[in-house]
Fold this protein.
Amino acid sequence: MSPVYVKAHVKRGKTNAADAEAIAEAVTRPTMRFVPIKSKEQQAALMLHKTRDLLIRQRTMLINALRGHLGEYGIVAARGPAGVRTALASMEKRSEELPASAVAALRALARQLASLDNEVADLERRILVWRCANETSRRLATIPGIGLIMAPAIAATVPDPGQFRSGRQFAAWLGLTPRANSSGGKERQGGISRAGDGYIRRLLVVGATAVLRFARQRGGEAWISGLIARKKPKVAAVAVANKSARIAWSLMARVEVFTPRAA
């Protein structure tokens, strides 16, 4: 059980006896949701995703460090990994003009960056192999906005979709639904709750951003076009991510493949 669900049953104080009593009471509740047991293969797949996410954050740190150090000597390039490679090439051309210690430090960071690129590429190849071998992951990859990385992440994180009563409950579990603060008959809703798995939520929002960008350039469903016209970009991305999460739950629960709506 999640500690958040058990905390509501703690009467007073924070002691081992009070915690044990709260756990014993919470486990008897008919609506209690338990953490699903994952297989060794699913846990291994999640380790691939978490390791890849960690290496990508480290790569971003290296890129920012390289940009800052190169900027001290007037070497500035475009954003993104390609821009950093261009800046490093400019540094090599001007290596004779720069201090030897600065060149040594920059080359050390560049070697670390190249090593991380290779490690991330290897992990992504392993993730794609797992996706091809998993049936649920292959079905999820048919949803627009859910790519080759996100589909195996959802399939490994949610081994049993039956623990959720509906797609909305699954989206709420991911923190993609508005936070309710209603009282006295007045309905008040704020921003998304950001509960649950932040990794999958981030992937869903990034995928939704790609769907919106594609819709702006080449057109899309009437619902998405109306959403773009009415809402701000980030609000629209969260709304599309919410819908993608509901579709993902439906495909997992009904063992189906995504079928686009006919025009």
Q: What stands out?
A: The CA atoms of residues 131 and 138 lie 6 Å apart. The chain has two domains: 40-133, 136-179+193-263. The two ends are 44 Å apart (CA to CA).
